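Q: My labmate handed me this sequence with no annotations at all. I'd like to see what the chain might look like in three dimensions before we decide whether it's worth expressing. Could you predict it?
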Amino acid sequence: MPELPEVEVVRTGLSPAVTGARIVAVDARDPRALTRHTGGPLDFEARLRGRGITGAARRGKFLWLPLDAESTDGENLSDMPEAILVHLGMSGQMLLRADGASTERHERIRLSIEHAEHGPLDVVFADQRTFGSLAIDPLVPTADGEAAGWGTPDPLLPSQVSHIGRDPLDPAFRDRAFVQALSRKDSAIKRVLLDQTLASGIGNIYADEALWAARIHPETPARTLSSRAAGRLLTEVRAVLKRALAEGGTSFDAQYVNVNGQAGYFAHSLRAYGRTGQPCERCGRPIVRASFMNRSSHFCPRCQRVPPPRP
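A: Here is what I predict for the chain of 311 residues:
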């Protein structure tokens, strides 16, 4: 599943093309791509035609495109602020294409837009596994009154994202609250890192990478970490996410691409995830793989010691 770096790469690619653009046509050809939308394809299409897009924002693994309240003819289309909510699921892609470009493989929804600077463009949502979804969702105030996430100055976020915590790269993320939350969690630290209500955007890949860098075993109970260890882990989480962003995210197959269909290169920089049997870069002992929550954890059994039994 795309994690914070992959989704942020998509957001930064979309932003200049969609900000200030007007939606001139909508083709919602597959209802499976609207599972988060309260109406069907016809409702989705009718409510978007003529709307302006004011930006591209992200919190965790969720994207949204805030919308103008009025259509081109001045009709008031909504009594509350709204946005196109985008969740990429397992294999979703948001692609920028030339106006009238041929149908993409696994194409589900196409927005035809007109931009004053870039001219006509198509925004295509393609999804092989059909777990992703688009929706028109009302925007609600953030709990802390701060800007909702990356790419927006407004303290408004989609209602379906209101339960999602801020990501560790967000300027409004509170380190002390995160460390205090860990001290109250009995669960394994990796399970806590994957809890999107506490800190969003961290998935299986980057959890394994950060835990390796911080020398913490994934099964360590979160509450047993010292404040220093928790702070070190948070530092490594941020470092891993920043490196992945710089390399365009992690691409293991053709599903993980930016808006132009290009793959990221962070897979070549991984030190734990997906390196089963390969030597640890610190000590040389083989990286091991263990079952974890219907997924896998990758770690070094020497550098990341098994936690002692719980008292």
